[in-house]
Amino acid sequence: MYNGRDMTELSMMSKRDWTDDELAHFQHSFQQILPYLNSEGQTIQREIMEEMAARK
Fold this sequence. Notes:
Order of helices and strands: HHH
Largest sheet: none
Low-confidence stretches: none
Helix content: 55-70%
Mean pLDDT: 96
Distance between the termini: 24 Å
Number of helices: 3
Number of strands: 0
Structural class: mainly alpha
């Protein structure tokens, strides 16, 4: 189970400052609700995916 900062706190930070666990958790969460995301949610998910790719 995820035990870290919530999206309210993380949304005020650059994705570069998120931990790998935070990126993975929220990427998985957004992936599960993808059909229901509005454009803002889709943008956040894309930014998370781009940050994960940049770290590899």
